[in-house]
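Reopening this one. Same input as before:
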Amino acid sequence: MAAKKAKATNTVALSKDQFKDAIVKHLRSTCGTDEARANNQAWWKATCAAVNELVFERLTETSKANAEKDSRAVHYLSLEFLMGRLTVNNMHNVGVFGAARDALADLGKDVNDICDEEPDMALGNGGLGRLAACFIDSLATLNYPAVGYGIHYEHGLFRQEIQGGRQIERPDSWREYGNPWEICRPESIQEVPLYGYVETVFGEDGKMRKVWHAGRQIKGVPWDIPVVGYEAKTVNVLRLWESKAADFFDWDVFNAGGYIDSQSEKSQAEAVSKVLYPNDESEAGKELRLIQQYFFCACSLKDIIRRYKRNHSDFSQFSKQAVIQLNDTHPTVAIPELMRILIDEEGLVWDDAWAICKETFAYTNHTLLPEALEKWAVYLFEKVLPRHLEIIYEINRRFLEDEVEAKWPGNDEMKRHLSIIEEGETRMVRMAFLCVVTCFKTNGVAAMHSELVKEDLFPEFYELWPERFVNVTNGVTPRRWLLACNEQLANMYNETVGTDWPLKLDELKGAAKFADDAKFQKNFMAIKREKKVELADKIEELCGIKVSPDAMFNVLIKRLHEYKRQHLALLHILALYRRLLENPDYDMGPQVFIFGSKAAPGYKLAKDIIYAINKVADKVNNDPRIKDKLKVVFMPNYRVTLAEKLFPAGDVSLQISTAGYEASGTGNMKFALNGALTLGTMDGANVEIREEVGDENIFIFGMDCDEVKALKAAGYNPWDYYYGNPELKAVLDWLETDFFTPGAPGELASIKHSLLEGGDPYLVLADFESFTTQYTAVDVAYRDQKKWAKMAIINSASVGKFNSDRSIEDYVDRIWKLEKVMPN
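Same output, byte for byte:
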C-alpha cells in the first residue's frame, strides 16, 4: 500500500482512494471474492487486512528495535485481557479512520455496519481484564517495551442470554470464523509438563539435584495480537497461548476401532484453553483451573527466557532485562516455575535463583476479599505440580526461619499466621502470601485500596518490608473510552482544547472554564442526548423496552457480586415503585435504571439478583399506573462493545459498593470522562474522583470505611434496620409475595433471606436510607438542566488523572524502571 507518513507524527496518512484500493485488493486476493458478491463479513476482513498492512510493518520495526537495543521490558501476566473489538480502535490509532470511513462509503458500505461484524475479543470477566487491555494500549502508546501474556481461550467467559428472566450461559465462540488481527507463531511453541513424580539424584560431583519426571506433556501454541499504540509509533504484542496435545492422535487405537478414545488426549489438552474460569465447584474443575494457570505461566516464562538467551549466555543480567508483573494472584505459580527452571534446568544454586526471582517479580493486588485471595489445596499441588510444591515448601521454610524468626523471635503463632502453607483440615497454599514474600513490589490500585492492603490485608508483611508496598491508581485509555466511543464529544474537545488530549488528558481541564457557558452547555448536552437516543434504540432492539432519552439514565454495569450491591439499587427501585403506586403524583422526574452484568455460573445469589431485576422490570415497565416515570432495563451479555454505548449515554454512574471492598473500579472513570455524575460510596477510586471533581460535583452516600469497620466491630444486626424503616421492611416483604412472580410466591425471597438470616455481610440495609435520600438530591439536580450541564462538564474535564498513560508512567517510575524505545 502506498503510504505517506505525516510529518508531525508517525501516524500513516492515507487518502480515501488509497484505502479504497487496498480494501478492494484484499477483498479479492485475501478474501477470494469481489465487490458484487462480498457479504459484510468479507468487507470487514478486507478492511482489517488493509489496516494490517500498516500495523504489521510497525510491529516488525518495533520488535527489531527492541532486539537491537536489548531493552529492559515488562512482561504483563494476566489470566484476563478484555480487549473488545479492535477494528475502530486500531484505525484511530493508526490514523486512518477517516480514510476508511470515506473509502467504504464510496464503495457503498457504512463503516459502522462493517465494524459491527467483529465479535468481541471477550477474554476476560470484568475490571481486571479491561484494565489489562488499557495498560497494554498505554505501554505501546508510550513506547515502552512490553509483552502481554495470557490464554487464547476458545470461548472466553460465556455469552449471556436471559430466558424467563434468568441468566443462561452459552459458549462465546469469538473466533468461530477466524480473527484477522491475530497471527499464529508455531516457531515459538512450548512444551509444558504436568503430573508425574520427583526423583532425587546425585551427579558425579556428588551434588544433589531434583528431576521431575512428568506424567504428561501438553503444547502451548502462541497467537500474537498486535497492540497498536496511539499514532502507531510502537506496536507491541499480546501473546496468547492455546493448549494442544503433544501427541494428539493415536493411530493404533483408532485402527483398533477406538474412534473416540483415539482423540481423548487431544480433548483433555484442549480443555485447558477452552474457557475462561471453568466452574471450580467440582474437583475436576479445581484441577483444570490450576493446570490452566500453570500452563500459561510455564509457556510465558519459557518464552521470556528464550528471548533473553538471544543476547545473554548466563542469567546474571536476567532481572535487569526482565520484569514480570503478576496481575492478581492467578499467575503466582510463575514464581516456583522460574525457581524450578533456574535450579533444575539451568543449574543455579538456590540463593542465586532466589535473588533473581525476588528482583524479577512484582505483584498487583486487586481485591481485599479473603475469598478472592486464591488458595490451592496442597494435595492438588502434589498431584499436578509435585516439584513446585517442594519449592514452595522450601521458600516458606526459609521465610519463616530467616525473616519471621528474626522479626518475631520464638513467636510460633506469628509463623502460623504468616506461613505460605495454611494449616487446617485441608492444607492450603496461600498464593497471595507467596506473591508478597517473593515480589520486590506489591501495589494496590487506588490510594485508599493501597492503604487497606497495608493496614488490613498484609499488615505484618508491611511491617517486615514497608519499602515494598506502593500505590498505582488505575486509569483508562481515553483513545477507546472517549475518542473511539464518543466521536461527537471528542470532536467538541478537539475544537475547544486542541487535538493533543488523547495523549495528554489533563488538557481537558481547559474545557472546564466553559462549564457556565450557555452555548457550550447546550452543545455538550445535545451530544449526551444523541448518545441516549442511540442507547434507547439499542435497548428496544435487545430488550423490547421503550425508554425516553429525556429520562435520567442511571447505569450500573459491572460484574454481579454482593459487595458491588446491585441489590441495593434494586431495593431503591422497589421503593420508588411503591411510592408511585401509593401516590401517582409523587414528585420525581422520569428515571431509567439500566443494569449490565454477568454472574459467575456457580454463584446462585448473584443469579437470583439478575432474575429479581428482570421480574421487577417486567412488572414496572408494564404498569400504566406509574405513567412511565420509572423504567428498569437489564441488558443481556454485557461486554466491551455494549459498554461503548453505555458509558457515553449515562447520566448517573452508580458506584455503590460497600466502602472498603472495591479496590478501584474503572467504570467510574469512564462514566465521568463521558460526562456522567457519580453517585457512590467513599470506596476505591471514588475517593480520588471526588478530590478531582470537587464535593459539589459528585453525590456521596453511605458509611465510609472506618464507619463500616466500627459497625461490624460493634455487632451489626440487619434486623434493626428492617424493623426501623417501614419502607425498607415493606419492599423486602414484597420479595416474598408473588406480586412480581404470579403463581410462584417466594421466588425472589433469597435476596431478603441473604440480607436478614444471612447477616447482610455487605451492609445493604445499613446504607439503604442514605442511598434513597441522596437519590432524591440527584433527581432534583437533574431537573435543573443548566446546573446539571455544568456539573457534567466539570466531571468530564477534571478526570485527566485517570488516564492509563499516567498509571503506566507511575508503574515505570515506582516499579518497572523501563526506558522508552523508539522504532525507526
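So the earlier flakiness isn't reproducible anymore. For the record, The chain has a mean pLDDT of 94.
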